[in-house]
Amino acid sequence: MNTKTQNNNSGKRLVILGGGESGAGTAILGVKEGFEVFVSDKGKIKEKYKSVFEELKIDWEEEQHTEAKILNAEVVMKSPGIPETVSIVKQLVAKGIPVISEIEFAAAFTSAKIIGITGSNGKTTTTKFVHHILKSAGIKAGMAGNVGDSFAKQVAETTPDWFVLELSSFQLDGIKDFRPDISVLTNITPDHLDRYEHKLENYVFSKFRIAENQTEKDFFIYDLDNEIITRWLEKNPVKAQKLPFSLQQKVENGSYIENQNIIVNIKNNQFNMPTTKLGLQGKHNTKNAMAAATVSQLLRIRKETIRESMESFQGVEHRLEKVLKINNVQYINDSKATNVNATFYALESMESETIWIVGGVDKGNVYDDLLPLVNEKVKAIICLGVDNQKLMQNFGNCVDTMVETQSMKEAVRMAYSLAEKGNSVLLSPACASFDLFENYEDRGRQFKEAVRNL
């Protein structure tokens, strides 16, 4: 458990790199805890965050990093979007100034217990799932990290008993003492390798940092079916008590499937529920549900409450979200699929002939795993990106129709003209969105708007 830091921070210089959600939240908490705060952003800062800095009466700058104002910091909070390789960060590290993430900074100022959730896919759904169950059980719980208001802002303004945190590998890269009471690792597939020298082991190491400070009193929940995870654990044991979940094998402590029932067993205390009753269907969602149910069992939440919560949970915007049915064609928004593995789950869950909208900024994708699914389920491919060459090379022989488009409106109109009764139109890009959109949310909203305007 994280205990509130007792040392006096009055007048200590806190420099915040990045004036977005985590930067603004850290500024609020920093001022509250007596730090002298300075915010610096290489890009433009959104008006809503500028007004926060003005209200706090702190010094800030945009479109530049003034070295003299940064290199005199006693501690630096770096936003997750800024790579460690940028010049100013390298200079700070060379001077021995601690560069930490918002998660590390804020955890020191809360006495709430923490559930930390990471993974290449499923972390948002699992985070919202766990939070939904805790709320239904009447537990005072905050949800932060990659979702909702920033963790630091919530630490400054609220006092929950538990925090459920969705953590990216970038946020975990900036921790030193951060220690969740319960950690969840949903899965690991190659992603963001451009930030990890294109080495999978660097990325895996980052994900496992979620458990590095855990002790024998803590719990580590993970996907036993994921080879990357199990191979890593063989060589790098974790101290926390391990609670695996698996679709393929029975486990003594943890969660497994038997006769289409989810079974969670922790020290002979058993919970079960038919998979058919889950509000979210699909193998990957069953795993997310198993992880959430394992957390809930650890917290000794009433079994009836867990069952009801798992039946009522409806998932996450931009993740296999059914938008509309037009002329008996189902349009599905899976914009959150920013890597190949997420798109694999999406295609696997398709039960009708599919027109697949794909493309964006490729993070070193290998598309081989998708080929059997594309051959089986996809009748046409619509590329949506600035550079679609790799997609054309990989899938050109799989389908009769493959077209390139440069806007969401154009992609959706093309899908509409190609779709026949009973088909599905699936936006599942397998790529980042930054070439044509602000982020995956913007991409998903543009898709939904284009569908509604058909």
TrEMBL record:
SUPFAM superfamilies, A to Z: MurCD N-terminal domain, MurD-like peptide ligases, catalytic domain, MurD-like peptide ligases, peptide-binding domain
Record Pfam families: Mur_ligase_C (PF02875), Mur_ligase_M (PF08245), MurD_N (PF21377)
Gene3D superfamilies with a match to the protein in the record: Mur ligase, C-terminal domain (3.90.190.20), Mur-like, catalytic domain (3.40.1190.10), NAD(P)-binding Rossmann-like Domain (3.40.50.720)
Metal-binding is among the record's keywords: no
Major location category of this protein: cytoplasm
Biochemical pathway: Cell wall biogenesis; peptidoglycan biosynthesis
Subcellular localization(s) per the UniProt record: Cytoplasm
Keywords: ATP-binding, Cell cycle, Cell division, Cell shape, Cell wall biogenesis/degradation, Cytoplasm, Ligase, Nucleotide-binding, Peptidoglycan synthesis
Superkingdom of origin organism: Bacteria
EC code(s) of this entry: 6.3.2.9
Name of the protein this chain belongs to: UDP-N-acetylmuramoylalanine--D-glutamate ligase
Lineage of producing organism: Bacteria, Pseudomonadati, Bacteroidota, Flavobacteriia, Flavobacteriales
